[in-house]
Write a structure and sequence with these properties.
With about 325 residues, the protein is an alpha/beta fold. The chain is built from 11 helices and 17 strands. The chain is globular.
Length: about 325
C-alpha cells in the first residue's frame, strides 16, 4: 500500500485513483505525485530548485486529465518535472503569459478557449501552428515563446490506432468550425479526403472557413458548408463515413447532444474530440445504437505525447503515458 504523499494543498493517498500499479510494479508519482489542485497564474506555488514546470491552461480546466499523462512520462524517463492545471479566463490570457514565465514554466498546453488566441500571443509560430492557425503547445526558449499545434497529428494518430481507416477515401463531416474543428478541417484540406462538409451553428463562420480552404480542395475533393439547422443536414448525415464532433458540447453534464446519432448512416464512425472521465453523452448514445464511436481521450494521449517531446527533446514513453491516462479515466478493466 502506498503511503500518503502531499504537495501543498494537493494530497494523495492509498485510496486515490492515482495510486496504482504501472507495468505490474508499484508506481509512485515523482516529487509528490500528480498535483490535483487547480491554480491561477497568481496562486502558483514556489518552484523547487532544479525542477522543470509545465502545465495546461483552460477555462474550465479542473476536468483535465493531462497531469496524469505527463507525470507518467516524467517518471518513466526520470525527469524532475511537474505539470499543473491553470485556470485562465479568456480575458486574462495575455496577462497570464508573463506570470507563467515568472513562475518558471518551460512550456504549457492550451485547451478551450485559448488555442486561437494563443496563436497571436506567442513570439514565434512554428509550421504546425501556422497550418492550424492555432496553438495548443507553447515552449519557452530563453525569454521567447514558441507556438506549436499537435492537435491534427495527435488526432490522426488516434484515428489510425482506433480504426485504421483510409481518410483519403472517406466522406468526412465536421461539426464545429472553431477551435479543434477548424484545425482538423485545415489539416484534412491539406492532406485530402473524398469529401469534406463543414457544419457550424453560425453558418457564416463555416462559409468563411470554406472560402479559405477552397483553393486547397480545387478538384481534389468536394468541399462545402451548411448551417447546423439546415434541412440538408439530415441528408448529409446519411452520406458520411466519419463524423467529427469538434464543439465543446459534451463537457457540461447538461449539454444537449450535438446531433441525433439515430440519423447517421449505419456504417458511419463517430469521433468526439471532447473527452470526460466518463464517455461523452454523444458517444454513449451512438454506441447504444450500435455505432462505432470514440471520444477524444486517444487524441489527448497522442497530442500530449507530441507536446512532451517538444518540451523534453525525448521520445515520449507512450505506453506508460497511455496506462496512466486510461487508468485515471477509469477506462482500464
Amino acid at each position: 500500500m502506498l503511503k500518503d504523499i502531499s504537495y501543498g494543498k494537493a494530497r494523495l493517498g492509498s485510496t486515490d485513483p492515482t495510486a496504482f500499479l504501472l507495468g505490474e510494479t508499484p508506481f509512485r508519482w515523482l516529487n509528490g505525485g500528480v498535483i490535483s489542485e487547480v491554480f491561477t497564474p497568481n496562486t502558483l506555488p514556489p518552484l523547487p530548485p532544479g525542477r522543470a514546470r509545465y502545465g495546461v491552461l483552460g477555462h474550465p480546466i479542473a476536468h483535465s486529465l493531462s497531469p496524469f499523462l505527463h507525470h507518467a512520462g516524467f517518471v518513466a524517463l526520470g525527469l524532475d518535472a511537474e505539470y499543473l492545471r491553470i485556470e485562465v479566463p479568456a480575458a486574462d490570457l495575455a496577462s497570464a503569459i508573463s506570470l507563467l514565465k515568472k513562475g518558471g514554466f518551460r512550456g504549457w498546453n492550451c485547451t478551450l478557449p485559448h488555442k486561437n488566441s494563443m496563436f497571436s500571443l506567442v513570439d514565434r509560430v512554428e509550421p504546425t501552428a501556422t497550418e492550424a492557425k492555432s496553438v495548443n503547445t507553447v515552449r519557452i526558449e530563453g525569454d521567447q515563446s514558441q507556438g506549436f499545434s499537435t492537435d491534427a497529428l495527435g488526432w490522426r494518430a488516434a484515428i489510425k490506432e482506433t480504426w485504421n481507416i483510409d481518410l483519403g477515401k472517406s466522406r468526412i463531416l465536421i461539426l464545429g468550425c472553431g477551435g479543434v474543428g477548424q484545425t482538423l478541417a485545415r489539416h484534412l484540406a491539406k492532406t485530402g479526403c473524398r469529401s469534406l462538409l463543414l457544419v457550424n451553428r453560425d453558418p457564416t463562420k463555416a462559409k468563411k472557413l470554406e472560402a479559405e480552404l477552397a483553393p486547397l480542395a480545387t478538384e481534389r475533393f468536394s468541399l462545402r458548408s451548411i448551417g447546423w439547422h439546415s434541412k440538408d443536414l439530415d441528408h448529409a448525415l446519411k452520406e458520411t463515413d466519419l463524423l467529427i464532433q469538434g464543439t465543446s458540447l459534451g463537457l457540461g453534464k447538461d449539454d444537449p447532444l450535438p446531433i441525433d446519432p439515430a440519423k447517421l448512416a449505419r456504417g458511419t464512425k463517430l469521433y468526439d474530440t471532447v473527452y470526460r472521465q466518463e464517455l461523452t453523452p454523444l458517444v454513449r448514445a451512438a454506441r447504444k445504437l450500435g455505432y462505432q464511436a470514440e471520444d477524444g481521450l486517444g487524441m489527448l494521449l497522442h497530442q500530449g505525447a507530441l507536446s512532451f517531446t517538444i518540451w523534453t527533446g525525448q521520445t515520449a514513453p507512450l505506453e506508460k503515458m497511455r496506462h496512466a491516462l486510461f487508468h485515471a479515466a477509469q477506462r482500464l478493466p
